[in-house]
Design a protein that fits this description.
The complex is a heterodimer of chains A (about 110) and B (about 110). Chain A has strands spanning about 5, 10-15, 20, 25, 30-40, 45-50, 55-60, 65-70, 75-80, 85-95, 105, 110-114. Chain A is mostly beta strands and about 110 residues long. In chain A, a hairpin with a 7-residue loop joins strand 10 and strand 11 (about 105). With about 110 residues, chain B is mainly beta. The chains are: A mainly beta (about 110), B mainly beta (about 110). The interface of A and B includes residues 4, 34, 46, 104 and 105 of A.
């Protein structure tokens, strides 16, 4: 079965510390991978995406993610977080056999502590 | 440049009432989507459309209906509202099905059914 898993529902981290938000997927076909961010009372915004090519992808606001095919993971990282990074982060996957449908993980709430 | 506009932002419905959630985009995107977001459950696709006059079911279509008479508008209709439809509803659009640019999301409609 195809699925997307974000194991960490809440991640607290001190300001200027590094952070990693985990995303794993299960699939027998090729995938396209995305991270979205949702600030309070707003819609989702695209942070970064992996379609093909280099497995290290850089996005907006200093975030990056690495596609690991053998571990079926697409973890999001930032070397030094700011208060303004406090938000909900969603991993999303498009499986190549499901057309235009995206499947979203359950989200990780990142709280940056001053 | 408004992007994706959703109305209303908040609504309280009584069980059995009906309503239409409005969604309009001004980016000339062919693809449009309706998602619902429940706490701890991520986003689930309700319906989507790949162009005017074409709609299809997503993961959780029961209790909802859509229409797409124009490229700009993609309203979501709730008939006979039930408490299980209490959720935050997001409309999204994309130029190419989301793989190149991701989705553009509206700011959401928070619906409570009592």
């Amino acid at each position: 079965a195809q699925s997307v898993t974000q194991l960490d529902s809440q991640v607290p981290v001190f300001e200027e510390a590094p952070v990693e938000l985990r995303c794993n997927y299960s699939s027998s076909v090729s995938v396209y991978l995305f991270w979205y961010v949702q600030y309070p009372n707003q819609g989702l915004q695209l942070l970064l995406k992996y379609l093909s090519g280099s497995t290290l992808v850089k996005g907006i606001n200093g975030f990056e993610a690495e596609f690991n095919k053998s571990q079926t993971s697409f973890h999001l990282r930032k070397p030094s977080v700011h208060i303004s990074d406090t938000a909900e982060y969603f991993c999303a996957v498009s499986f190549t056999n499901t057309g235009n449908q995206f499947y979203f993980g359950t989200g990780t709430s990142l709280t940056v502590i001053p | 440049n408004a992007g994706v506009t959703q109305t209303p932002k908040f609504r309280i419905l009584k069980i059995g009432q009906s309503m239409t959630l409005q969604c309009t985009q001004d980016m000339n995107h062919n693809y449009m989507y309706w998602y619902r977001q429940d706490p701890g459950m991520g986003l689930k696709l309700i319906y989507y459309s790949v162009g005017a006059g074409i709609t299809d079911k997503g993961e959780v279509p029961n209790g909802y209906n859509v229409s797409r008479s124009t490229t700009e508008d993609f309203p979501l209709r709730l008939e006979l509202a039930a408490p299980s439809q209490t959720s935050v509803y997001f409309c999204a659009s994309s130029k190419t099905g989301g793989l190149d640019y991701g989705y553009t999301f509206g700011s959401g409609t928070r619906l409570t059914v009592v």
